Amino acid sequence: MDQAREAVREMRTGKAGAAQHLRDLFPDVRKLADSGDCEFQELLGGICLEYMKNYEAARWYLGQAAKAGNAAALRGLGFMLLHGLGGNRDAEKAVQLFQAAAAEGDGAAKYNLGAMHLRGDVLPKSKEQALQHLEEASVAGEAVASRQLGEIKLADGDRRSARAYLELAVDQGSYVALKDLAPLCRDGVGGDVDRVRALGCYLKLLDIGDGDGMHEAHQLADLMTDEEIREAASWANHVALGESLIGRARR
After folding, report:
1. Residues 134 and 56 occupy one common structural domain
2. pLDDT for the residue 3
3. Separation of alpha carbons 251 and 243, rounded Å
4. Over 70: is that where the pLDDT of 251 sits?
5. Do 152 and 164 touch, CB atoms closer than 8 A?
6. How far apart are alpha carbons 174 and 166 in whole angstroms?
7. Do both 24 and 89 map to the same domain?
8. Which of 9, 11, 59, 76 has a 20 to 30 A CA-CA distance from 144?
9. Which of 74, 100, 126 is where one domain is finished?
10. Does residue 9 sit in the same domain as residue 84?
11. Given phi > 0 = left and psi -120 to 50 = alpha, else beta, which region is 45?
């Protein structure tokens, strides 16, 4: 179970070899799901939904797990109903499922409710309600909610809160937030200048094949000590690249 969930997480971040890892585990996951295990039904439903695009199978497996009260399945089924995947669209029922999942502590469902209030589709547009749900989702560990809160606070001019939320989003695993956080740390917006964190963000983006920040990384390295560069590279898990930056900066 843990290996399968890890493979799904790897797929979402684009890690090399994740797809094959998931394919290798698929037969065992399906066997356990078909035996009636609701956790594996939810997992298989999610795989069918996100990666196989087999919406009918996804709706069936998520439906079975939702009947057992599995929070992630309630949320997944709600998503399918909201978008009419694998059957008829039912926005009202989708909201009910999101609310049920949120009541069970599902952070992603709380994020969904917040996003719906923010957009004003299906649920009434309400920034107050949106922020409440997004805050709860952020506390539950949803990086996308923390990042959204950072963007909202930045638009509102609250740079200190924006930076704090973006830092939290990065710590929770958001690669998207790295791009927003790096210049804030580099330029001392919303807090002190933090070149170590900024450089670490630019290097971490390489995990998803994004090298757009390497120009800024080289500029930062020219202003940093060897120890600071190593600290940033260690945080980003790119130690060898840190040594390369040191060598280039000291030429």
Report:
1. no
2. 75
3. 13
4. no
5. no
6. 9
7. yes
8. 59
9. 100
10. yes
11. alpha
According to the model, what pLDDT value does residue 16 have?
67
CA neighbours closer than 13 Å in the CB half-sphere of residue 39: 5
Q: Please report whether residue 211 resides in a domain.
A: yes
Ranking 34-43, 142-151, 153-162 by mean pLDDT, the lowest is 34-43
Question: What pLDDT shows up at residue 130?
Answer: 98
Question: Do 87 and 158 fall into the same domain?
Answer: no
3-class SS at 175? coil
Domain hosting residue 146, numbered range: 105-177
We report the CATH number of the domain holding residue 130 as 1.25.40.10
| CB distance 59 to 85 below 8 Å | yes
Q: What is the pLDDT of residue 99?
A: 98
Q: Work out the average pLDDT over 144-158.
A: 97
- pLDDT tens, residue by residue, 89-126: 999 999 999 999 999 999 999 999 999 999 998 999 99
CA 94 – CA 114 distance, rounded (Å): 14
Domain annotation covers residue 183: no
The residue type of 96 is Q
Range in 9-23, 69-83, 190-204, 220-234 the model is least confident about: 9-23
Please give the tally of structural domains in the chain.
Answer: 3
87 and 116 within one domain: no
Answer yes or no: is 187 within a domain. Answer: no
What whole-number distance in Å separates Cα of residue 250 and Cα of residue 211? Answer: 22
